Amino acid sequence: MTTFWFIVIAFLWTGYFVLEGFDFGVGALLPLLSRSEADRRQVLGTIGPVWDGNEVWLITAIGAMFAAFPAWYSGLLSGFYLPVFLVITGLIVRGVGLEWRGKVHSRREVALCDAGIVTGSVLPAFLWGAIFGNLLFGTALATVLGGALSLSVAVLHGAVFVALKTTGGVRARARRAALLAAVGAMPVALSTLPSVPGRGPLWTLGTALLAAAALAAGVTLVWGRREGWAFAATATAITATTATVFGVLSAAPLPGLTLAEAASAPYTLTLLTWIGLIALPGVLAYQAWTYWVFRKRLTAEVSLSA
């Protein structure tokens, strides 16, 4: 049961990074992809129906850690108290900006909402990578590289998502932004590969190589205007990266703490399993339905009428 719940938590974090990753990227790119208010509404319209649902993955992942691995939960959140606090602050600021932007009218208030969206997207995207980079390697350089990797990949992922979901000038600018983001993401991703061997199970080297290959494929596909396949490639890169991280953490989620030592009692894990089997399929089905309903591209006219 311990291994099973570690895999479940890894799955939840993966879902969060894949789905919230493009939310972060879209928010960070807002001022760069927009030339007018219609453009800004078109950009934000790509994540409008889904961003708050995507945050549920984080709440579920943290809640599962608390219930299944309380020692890991407490050690992670207390050891990284300041960056986690800043992540939460950023998410709150971004949420306020997204919710209030359509309810205010003066240019100053709209500009403040936009600034909150950008700041609340860039800050968590960088800090999550910094936290896990420090957790894996424990050095200042790894912290910075982890933050740079997660931010640059989120920007690339978000740019591809905007290109997939929009038309016209916004779509063209999103494709160019994706190519520019790749200039930062690819070197950082390749620089982290030599650190993987010997850190975890042998298969983590394979997932790390898959992440780099998927990232390169995403860039190639967006260059060829195959945004759907490009988005699948960047999502695969994030999935493979997260699998690598949790593969390395599987031996010791915190320094000096094994997975077995961090786990709850068997009875608690069994009870959690039954709750998860009942609740998780419904949550996944609802989110899949949401993405299906809002699957079409957005035009400037649709965004302004929404």
From TrEMBL:
Transmembrane parts of this sequence: 6-33, 54-73, 79-98, 110-131, 137-164, 176-196, 202-223, 230-251, 271-294
Entry keyword annotation includes Kinase: no
Organism phylogeny: Bacteria, Bacillati, Actinomycetota, Actinomycetes, Streptosporangiales
Subcellular location field: Cell membrane
Membrane-related topology note: Multi-pass membrane protein
Gene name of this polypeptide: cydB
Family: Belongs to the cytochrome ubiquinol oxidase subunit 2 family.
Name by which UniProt lists this protein: Cytochrome d ubiquinol oxidase subunit II
Keywords assigned: Cell membrane, Electron transport, Heme, Iron, Membrane, Metal-binding, Transmembrane, Transmembrane helix, Transport
InterPro entries (alphabetical): Cyt-d_oxidase_su2
Keyword Cytoplasm attached: no
Coiled-coil positions: none
